[in-house]
Amino acid sequence: MASPNAPDDGPRSSLQPILKELCDAIEGCAGVPAALRVLRDAPALPEGWFEEDDGRVGLRLALEHTGWSAEIVFRERTDLRLTPDRRVPVEAMMPLVKRVLSAEIETRRLQHQVSMLHSDNATLLRRTRLDHMTGLLNGTSFHRTAHRLVERVERPRHVALLLIDVDDFKVVNDTFGHAFGDRYIRLMARTLRGICRAGDPVGRIGGDEFAVLLCDIPEDEAWVARTVRRIQTSFMTATHAMEPRCRGAASIGAHCFAAPGPAYADVFRLADAALYREKAMKNSRSVPRAM
């Protein structure tokens, strides 16, 4: 039975099927069991027939322009020898074996490079679209996504834009340190991502400012108000669990509307006005702060 061997080396491990096919063909010509393997960066040894220390006979091939070589080792037995007349057809098919292996290795090398390029491009795209600290959309990406969902819809939908401002973030930062402040911001990101649905864009649009676009929601402002309270309550609970002396608070401005309809810039302006009314109301009522 053929015993092909190839190193488990990323895309090169997929050489196994072609190695088996070639090995079967070589065995058919030789009439002797054989093992075929490919070697990368092997020492520069001469092509041709060789004999191993245990007496087994082999044939070495240099695979041009690849940096690889191939070795075929024949498993002779007392009653089954690789006689000179059996070597002739084996030698005759070696140019074909070399061309096939060289082409397969080069194909897989190119496939590996293409895969790496796709991976690098995906990484670059993530870095340009996402906020590095929270993994949410950055400001540019959020606004672009929200603009498309608001103004380029194919069917009517009810939507709400939420603008979230973490209260007293400078006080939190100054009191507990910048490392804690970073954790505080990431906690708000996790809170938003945990409450919002997978298809709702969530972004960090400023240092302590976030935005959420709730799409395809009930035509009910009370539903949006409940979602706002859930965000505020969850954030307060999570921050208190992280640091008992801290009670995280956030001001949230919301604007509900039907899309397609108003321009995204107008929607953002109205949600921003709602946010500042919320902050002004907190200040006038002396609402307890984050500390």
How does the SSE layout of this entry go?
Elements: H1 16-30, E1 34-40, E2 48-51, E3 57-63, E4 68-74, H2 84-129, H3 139-151, E5 157-166, H4 169-176, H5 178-195, E6 202-204, E7 209-215, H6 221-242, E8 250-259, H7 264-285
Antiparallel strand pairs: 1-4, 2-3, 3-4, 5-7, 5-8, 6-7
Helix pairs in contact: 1-2, 4-5, 5-6
What do these coordinates show?
It is a single chain. With 291 residues, this protein is α+β, with helices and mostly antiparallel strands. It contains seven helices and eight strands. It has a four-stranded antiparallel sheet, covered by helices on one side. A four-stranded antiparallel sheet has the order 6-7-5-8, sandwiched between helices. Strand 2 and strand 3 form a beta hairpin. Helix 1 packs antiparallel against helix 2 and helix 5 packs antiparallel against helix 6. This is diguanylate cyclase. It comes from Tranquillimonas rosea. It catalyses: 2 GTP = 3',3'-c-di-GMP + 2 diphosphate.
Please list the strands of the largest sheet in the order they lie side by side: 1-4-3-2
Percentage beta strand: 15-25%
What characterizes the major β-sheet?
4 strands, antiparallel
Number of helices: 7
| Mean pLDDT over all positions | 87
- What's the gyration radius in Å? 33 Å
Annotated CATH homologous superfamily of the largest domain: Reverse transcriptase/Diguanylate cyclase domain
Count the E strands. Answer: 8
Protein name: diguanylate cyclase
Enzyme class: transferase
EC number: 2.7.7.65
Organism: Tranquillimonas rosea
